[in-house]
Amino acid sequence: MPEPTVNPRRHRRSVRMQLTVLYSLVFSVTGLLLLGLTNLLFRTRIGATTVTVVPKSELPTGGVSTLTPNQLAAVAERLRGDALEQLMLMSVLALVVMLLVSVVLGWWIAGRVLRPLHTITATAQRLSAANLHERIALDGPDDELKDLADTFDALMDRLHAAFEAQRRFVANASHELRTPLAVQRAAIQIRLGRAGPGDLPRIQEELLETNRRSERLIEGLLTLATSDRGLDRHEPVDVAQTALEAVGQWQPAIKEAGLRAELDLRPMTVTGDPVLLLQLVSNLVQNAVRHNVPGGTLEVATSAADGLVVRNTGAVIARHEVQGLLEPFRRLSRQGEGVGLGLSIVRSIAQAHGGTVELTARPGGGLETRIALAATAPSQPVPA
Question: Which residues contact 161 (CB under 8 A, 6 or more apart)?
Fold first, then answer.
């Protein structure tokens, strides 16, 4: 017979109950201390008095003159004892009554104090991917609870932005993946069925180009996912040497486009993944080559003070379009071989290394990309 499951929340201690108990304990301790101090002071005061007031009912019929000093002192001592006993009894009774009152007040005050937490908890339990736009928007004094609510709202703002970016990314990725598949299916179903022997090489080349485009897209998505996941390797990397290697990889394309490459590679060592950093610089150089003009320039500079800077000539870019280039599948022209993932991969790799990316449209045309990374000790100078 299976054992019944126990709900852990059923036996969980309530914070409200804990605060109530704490308030009551504090009141009890302070009440006892006050009671003890009062009785001590009263005993000291009543014992130090030089005048004793004796009620007539306590005197013998013969009057005060018939009492000896010892008898009079005994009567006074008994009266002081009775007074102290009555004081202690009344004090304890008052303490018990006030303790009960403190429990009720402590429960009520704890509920008032914890009410914003209930609001935050209810909002957190209600939120899902469908209503991430909702916020707590807690009113009240600027205290710790309002700071907690505002922090939660700021977290939800970031989550909402991340969900929206993920939704756009999935929609764009599905569109980009469907396009080459549709082209391949049309070429196979329609053109191959009607093609003659002379058309086959051209159709084959179109299919190969579409396949290469799909391969670049998948590689870009995998690289983006790898950089978004974080760093698996942490080792010193000389960004200047990495930039020199990346420019060397694209040297044939630079010569073919008739571009002039200007390098100012000063020591810049960071801690990170050398493969991802090479991908970052390579994407920047690739972007600068593809979106340049014939006879234009390509500048790559590294330094511990300014970071990694890549400048290129090219078409004039509107200022409101610059930051959008960092989003996946965002590109100014549908022409060319790119799939719109290069700069988004650059931003993702930079963020994985604790860096930032700043894009600036150059007045005469082209783009300036500035990558700020956490630099460490300088490396050896890079040969030109």
Answer: none
